[in-house]
Design brief:
The chain is an alpha/beta fold. The protein has helices at residues 15-20, 58-70, 98-109, 140-157, 171-181, 202-207, 228-240, 254-263, 274-285, 291-305, 315-322; strands at 31-38, 44-46, 54-57, 75-81, 114-119, 133-134, 137-138, 161-164, 188-195, 244-248, 268-271, 309-311. The relative contact order is 0.13. The mean pLDDT is 97. Bound molecules: ligand PBG. Ligand PBG binds at residues 118, 120, 122, 130, 165, 201, 204-205, 217, 273-274.
Amino acid sequence: MGFPATRLRRLRRTGTLRSMVRETRLAPADFIAPLFVRHGEGVREPIPSLAGQHHLSVDMLVEEARELHGLGVPAVILFGLPDEKDEAALEAYAEDGIVQRALRALRAELPGLTLITDVCLCQYTSHGHCGVLRDGAVDNDITLELLSQTAVSHALAGADVVAPSDMMDGRVAAIRSALDDEGLTDTAIMAYSAKFASAFYGPFRDAAHSTPSEGDRRGYQMDPANLREALREVELDVAEGADVVMVKPAMPYLDVIRRVRDRTDLPIAAYQVSGEYAMLEAAVAAGLLERREAALEALTSIKRAGADLIITYHASRAAKWLS
Ligand code: PBG
């Protein structure tokens, strides 16, 4: 039956009707907030490339996480800024590394908050690559060993979920077996499965001091043009024991999120990355976009595409808007 009997505008007439037939609803419970932790005390230093985000010392991190939790955001994902960088990324898996310290403090102060850690070496290596370099290239299999040590040290310090973002082959299986060998069978793995070599990570590399000093990440992160390969990455991570799979970035890859949703029954996380956030904030600052409307629309599109969880720098603001 078509027009004039059918008129789709009928259900758009009032706010109540629109709300009653809304297919996708955002809630603070959908969000995971990325937080950057550094050494020191009383530090809350604005990150220039990410307006509204900060480098936090552990004490200030606890306060920020407390506020997020109070707003109904169930989880944070931690990124560490070490004091020292070296070839072997020593602080990534040190017992008193910055992320390990942060985890112990958060675990003690906020027992109900879910703690996720980014597992990667790029913030910790002197050259800024996500793994160990051998003959100028990242060596996959040596890197697996260090990633596994890092994941185990995070879990021992209190992480509920470890999230490998390095894109080495076989890392989910390696981390799962390392965790299980330590009796850490309850620690979940959220795999950055389809992680693309994206220009939209630019502001993050500034925030995490992790720009490679030479070369780029295209030898391990995915080619932005490839959808079928993304599905293979997801399939492998599921087979290796991932508990949650991730697509990253989010908005330029909504088709990938949708295809993954149609293929797997695992929960899907999507990472609305630094460049997506910075782009919106820049447009807001220039008076070109209305922040609240634009941010909620972007987040809704990511959920509509099929994501269950959204890692977003808008987490705190969006949680306030939605409460
Ligand atoms: C570490 C990592 C990166 C991001 C998350 N984990 C940077 C990269 O791979 O270059 C990007 C997050 C963002 O842009 O917000 N490997």
